[in-house]
Amino acid sequence: MIPEHLVFIDLETTGTNTLQDRVTEVGFYEVHDGAVVEQWSSLINPEKPISPFIEQITGISTAMVAKAPRFSEIAEELQGKLAGKVLVAHNARFDYGFLKSEFRRLEITFQENILCTLKLSRALFPEQKKHNLDELIERHDLKVQNRHRALGDAQVIKDFFAKIRDEQPHELLAKAIRSQLKQPSLPPHLSLEQLKRLPSSPGVYLFYGENDTMLYIGKSVDIRSRVYSHFAGDHRAHKEMRLSQQVRRIDFIETAGEFGALLLEARLVKELTPIHNRQLRRTRDLYSIRLASSVTFGSKPEIVLLKDLGGNELEGLYGMFRTRRQAHTALREVILAHGLCNRALGLEKGNGACFNYQIKKCRGACVGQESLQLHEARLVTAFASMKVRSWPFIGAIGIREKSDTSDRTEIHVFNHWCHLRTVDSEERLWEILDSADMLPFDLDGYKILIRFLEKNRLDIDLINLSFDECAPRIG
After folding, report:
1. Where along the chain do its domains lie?
2. pLDDT for 237
3. Superfamily for 5-181?
4. Which of 118, 215, 230, 151 is nearest to 184 (CA)?
5. Residue 260 belongs to what H/E stretch?
6. β-sheet bridge partners, residue 94
7. Are 234 and 240 in contact (CB under 8 A)?
8. Reported pTM
């Protein structure tokens, strides 16, 4: 269904950074059932100079906004006009991000449904490569009265929506809109107000059932959107249906970014053991493969239990497995894939050809067709991709993560792949120095950090720390 009550809105700003830049103009058209019921616009004093570059684009100068109201002076009126409406903007994340940031400075939570015409254009016209506002104006022959001014651009957005509403099949347009809004099928024991208070920011969300039973913990870069998606699809997936029927309360914890959300989710799932979380549960025993030296042949792979190793002996280990069976399976797959010899590896007793040679899965180290030196070299190569990483730092480190949309900053502290703690300032790092406990090795934390380092290796805000007393143990 296409919403009947829409607000087509546009902002002009001093730049593109929601933390540093400010709004200079707001304009919107409120439309009900296709008819304009209100037109509103105002220049805004951004309380900072407007650069010549921005002035050239928008035509809005520092002098023009000098006597305009500050955002704080129009915030209450604007919030009242937008409350409960579906806001329609082009590249809506930009406009919505600035609105949320301006309201946040006033300690006002701003949460409304957003519809992006850029995304609508992509969904309806996938054959087109560009979907910026100038392209839409030219492609759809839209009239422009005052480009790069809030009300002028809001009118273009309004006219574009009216055009696709008239020209596109109703169900196709409705489907594209539903995909964006993701309106939830309201769970029987939750109110819409509980859902609307959820933030559109990174973090962790927690579903509680009857008697505050912990049902499920999830993470997202957009908590609100992710929670909505649970209930938007509850009729298609059994798990979502059960959650929808059981959930009584939703809580959330915001984080600075995705990295912090991943770490927090992994920790909370282990601590609170939600009924519906199967991944990330605490594993008491972890297994790995170690290449031990064999007297008869070369290296001999053996499956070891990490907690039996003591200390932080991750050197020379290959792969991390939650069960011994998983380790055995991985070992067998590597041997078969690379034509290695079970007898040369000390895994099969007797003399002569091993079983794998008889089924043509061994290159013949057991019968002298391959030298033990070459077999050893191929063995090392075969296991190389599974090698457990050595800790690449001298001691503990802090990784600073900053929010893209707020002033939230977090520092995640690690030592020997173990996540010790997350703090919100460098001053609080000293609390960790004084009180960090010995921690067991955590496979999930190891994987999360490995992926983060690989993905962001050129852009990591690293704090070098050194406190040997915090070194975690395995087991």
Report:
1. 5-181, 192-272, 287-384, 397-470
2. 54
3. Ribonuclease H-like superfamily/Ribonuclease H (3.30.420.10)
4. 230
5. helix 258-272
6. none
7. yes
8. 0.63
Q: How many helices (H) and strands (E) does the chain have?
A: 17, 15
Residues written for the chain: 475
> Which helix (H) or strand (E) element contains residue 293?
strand 287-293
Query: Strand pairing partners for 8?
Result: 29, 88
Tell me the three state secondary structure of residue 425.
Answer: coil
Query: Residue-wise over 397-427: b if at least 16 C-beta within 10 A, else e?
Result: bbbebebebbebbbbbbbbbbbbbbbbeeee
Q: Centre a 10 Å sphere on the Cβ of residue 190 and count the other Cβ atoms it contains.
A: 18
Residue 210, SS3 per DSSP: helix
Count CB atoms within 10 A of the CB of residue 35. 7
The model's pLDDT over 170-193, given as tens digits with 9 standing for 90+, comes to: 889 988 888 887 666 678 788 877
Domains 5-181 and 192-272 share a fold: no
pLDDT for position 415 = 84
CATH of domain 192-272: 3.40.1440.10
Query: Is the pLDDT higher at 454 or at 160?
Result: 160
Phi, psi at 284, each rounded to 5°: -70, -40
Judged on CB neighbours under 10 Å (0-12, 13-18, 19+), 376 is: middle
